[in-house]
Amino acid sequence: MAAPTESGRRPVVVVDDLHVEYRVLATGKRASSGDSRGGLLHRGRSTRTVHALRGVDLTIHEGDSVGVIGANGSGKSTLMRAIVGLTPATRGTVRAAGRPSMLGVGAALVKELSGSRNIILGGLALGFSREEIEARHDDIVAFAGLEEFIDLPMRTYSSGMTARLKFALATARDHDILIVDEALAVGDKAFRKKSERRIREIRDDAGTVFLVSHSMKSIRDTCSRTVWVERGRVVMDGPTDDVVDAYEAK
Amino acid sequence: MVTTDRDALVPVTMPGPVPLTVVGGRPPLPEYLKQVWQRRSFIYALARFRIEAENQQNRLGMAWVVLKPLLNAGLYGTIFGILLSSGRPPHFVEFLVIGVFLFEFFATSFTSGAKSITGNTALVQSLAFPRMALPVAVVLQRLLQFVPMLAIMVGAVAVFGHPVSASWLLLVPLTALFFLFNTGLALIAARLTVHVRDLNNLLPFITRITFYTTGIFFSIEQRFADDPLVLRVASFVPLHEFLTLARGILLDDPAFEAPPEFWLYASIWSVAVLVAGVLFFWSAEERYGRTD
User: Fold this and answer.
1) What is the ipTM of this complex?
2) Is B3 contained in some domain?
3) What pTM value is reported for the model?
4) Where are the alpha helices (DSSP H) in A33-75?
């Protein structure tokens, strides 16, 4: 199965022969496709099956920081979403110790509320108590570098600011399985440095981090192990330098 | 975060058997409900913050919570009470205000409850928490907004000369039952719209049908006085029971006396809808964050 299995470190994520198929509506269909079925349930729409993951096996141990690389559309994000449980497995299973959380570039949590309110809500949703989250509030704001804007509604934030806030919030929790999907790419250089340091800290604290990125520098700087995904399969899995070298040589 | 003492983290403790669980599976119901209960401050904060945000966007702020149903009541009162004044029940203004205000709580809970998952995809997809928190927070928000409406309603009834009495306190259990009922309904609607997005387009239509068919601006008892079958059916319609009970509590007129068995019916409805809603919503828990 997976690469480094030093004894004594316990597995926190075990992916076993994972297949994910999406059934998507093929819009923009060609007129000649012979689609003459009527009826409310069909409405002439045809579905197409996309085989996004075709049998992935992975075992990740605590304290791993795992880089995930591959071309656009290779299945990286699908794999991450399956690990968080947002995308159901068609076949195979994903097991994890605890519930992983994922940090994507997506929208603000509740965009009509201020950054400050979002920190409190996000913290409460993550299971902090009101006191705990209020105690951490200022650290989170400082880490995100948003002191000036924290009372503005999040709909006024740039995508970089939103990503910074979400990153600061998600990493405010100890010993988590954290998945960072391209979120660092929108931050500026200073923030990227800071967040890479934070990822290393989490790793050193026996947390587990997945970093999906197209920046090989970020991957080399933060990840001990790297998984290369191509066309829904793991092409290579091993120490970061070896995998990234092979990927770049391709 | 890094508050832990580094030295303490050197692996001295041998971890026991790995508690690996299947990701995306839903916890058993008691465990799930416990998790929801643990997030109660999240639910409350979400409801409060939403009210705040809604108020900030309007100049009149909180006043709209009361103004909107008042305007509605005024409009319907003018059209149905004055322009088409056939069969106007006695104490029409109070009758209408109670009807419109209670309906507002019901309709807003139902409509925004139905959108509570589909309209919060960012939240659902980035944080792991029991999703039931979202519809419950929406209905709680509507309950918090219903409280000032309740005050205006009681005030209006008193101004129109109905003697204030201790029995008005029965509005508290009635509101509690109504809250349970609305929560159950919101849970059912929240899951249905996840499966069938088209329902979002039907929501205004459904609430409008409900508005015109339940006795909000007309009295079902009066209109169908010679049709026992309609009255029999109406007595099993939960919204009709809630309206009748509220009018019975507040209005000092034997014509509005509510049948005592309505308390029983309304309680059964509330508990049944809530239980059905919880089961129905929970059994698709793993479905809500999905994007396909």
Assistant:
1) 0.74
2) no
3) 0.82
4) none
